[in-house]
Amino acid sequence: MRIGELAAAAGVSVRAVRHYHRRGLLPEPPRRANGYRRYGLRDVITLARIRRLAELGLSLDEVADALADDTGRDLFEMLVELDGDLARQQEALALRRSRLGELIERAREGRLHADDTVSAELRSVLDTVAPTPLAPRERELLTLLDGNPDRDRVVAAMPPADPDLHRRLEALADATVDDPRIPTLADDLAASFPPDLRAMVTDPANPLDAFGDAVLDSLRPAQAEVIRRALHQLARP
Predict the structure, then answer these.
(1) Which SUPFAM superfamilies match (predicted)?
(2) Closest by CA position to 55, among listed 8, 11, 7, 4
């Protein structure tokens, strides 16, 4: 049979057959005097096996390994590993659909906000942000934690909301860096940090470095000075 007949018999395209030839999965028979290659039953069987393995999700390199193993031992291990990968993907997909369902329900009830797309863990922190003039900016900055690999550890260490500290910090919006209120506010802010958060910001491999830079850049000069002084106090031995 010719290549088109081979492809039809195995349920693949001619292009796929040629691709498998290039990858070395399917041996090319020698050309006959008329210039055409002639395929036999064994070629159909091999091609059908390639198709079935590929449909299961094996890469072409894995298909090649499976074809080279007569005992089937390596194929068994590949299939078990693939099954595990699919199970993990299925679990992740179920979680994503559950999260989408929550967002759709919030949208139907008119309660959907731009930052509701963050993780449930971080959303629980956003819900505690004190309703001050700084709140919208603080919520925006906190959403950056969802891209932090240490997000869960950071979220668990976040201090409870303190409306008084927020109001005092907002009151410095138009102040200068030598405002007399800064030292006391810095002391109170440093004292509000829970032990786990203290340990994080004083760690040489501080996972909050980039987040901290974003916070300072978003603040007015006097407000940023409060944060710097508080962090400096925490860094003291």
Answers:
(1) Putative DNA-binding domain
(2) 11
Q: Smallest Cα–Cα separation from 74: which of 64, 83, 85, 84?
A: 64
* Beta-ladder partners of 31: 37
Contact of 24 with 64, CB cutoff 8 Å: yes
DSSP 1: -
Which residues pair with residue 133 across a beta bridge? Answer: none
Does the structure show a pLDDT above 90 at 16? yes
pLDDT surpasses 80 at 119 = no
Q: Give the integer Cα–Cα distance in Å for 226 and 152.
A: 26
Task: Extract the tokens encoding 205.
Answer: 């491999």
What was the pLDDT predicted at 212? Answer: 72
Go through the chain and tell me how many residues it has.
Answer: 237
Per residue in 192-237, pLDDT (tens digit) is 888 887 787 777 776 566 667 777 888 899 999 998 898 888 877 6
Mean per-residue pLDDT for 42-56? 89
Please report, for residues 28, 103, 116, the alpha-carbon distance to residue 38 in angstroms, rounded to integers and kept in the order given. Answer: 9, 58, 61
Contact (Cβ atoms closer than 8 angstroms) between residue 162 and residue 130: yes
How far is Cα 224 from Cα 216, in angstroms, rounded to an integer?
5
pTM for this entry: 0.46
Q: Which two tokens stand for residue 131?
A: 């309703």
Residue 26, pLDDT score: 93
DSSP category for residue 194 = -
Give counts: helices (H), strands (E), the chain. 13, 0
